[in-house]
């Protein structure tokens, strides 16, 4: 099975380190689609134009985030794999908001307990009905977002 790949350059960002040095970063995100997939034109596939978005962000989404969200709104499967701090959680937050908007229950998993606790606190601020289940802690196991 082949895939179509399109490299999407990320806007160069400037970060300040503790020594006040400026570093320029440039990443290339690769977006892959299944063989034979035809991406709809932006005028027909842009979910923000067809209905109210499940969540609005106070910043401009990266192209890979926009494409993933468009696929989610079109009921397509999405897998996001990117380096640390690339913005994967933005897509997850949108998927959670979309599921809750549609009256579905959400289960978010993470590989370590510390991250589960961190996401629980963040999600609790974002969505009110949030629970947590780890090996030794259970909080509101019947919540809409667990």
Task: List the topology elements.
Layout: E1 3-9, E2 13-16, E3 22-25, E4 28-34, H1 42-45, H2 47-50, H3 63-73, H4 88-101, H5 113-126, E5 132-133, E6 138-139
Antiparallel strand pairs: 1-4, 2-3, 5-6
Helix pairs in contact: 3-4
How does this structure look, described?
It is a single chain. With 146 residues, this protein is an alpha+beta fold. It folds into two domains: 3-104, 3-Layer(aba) Sandwich (Rossmann fold), CATH 3.40.50.300; 105-146, no CATH class. Helix content is 32%, strand content 18%. It has helices at residues 42-45, 47-50, 63-73, 88-101, 113-126; strands at residues 3-9, 13-16, 22-25, 28-34, 132-133, 138-139. A two-stranded antiparallel ribbon has the order 1-4. Strands 2-3 form a two-stranded antiparallel ribbon. α3 runs parallel beside α4. The two termini are 35 Å apart. Residues 11-20 have a biased composition (Low complexity). Keywords: ATP-binding, Helicase, Hydrolase, Nucleotide-binding. GO terms for molecular function: ATP binding; helicase activity; hydrolase activity; nucleic acid binding.
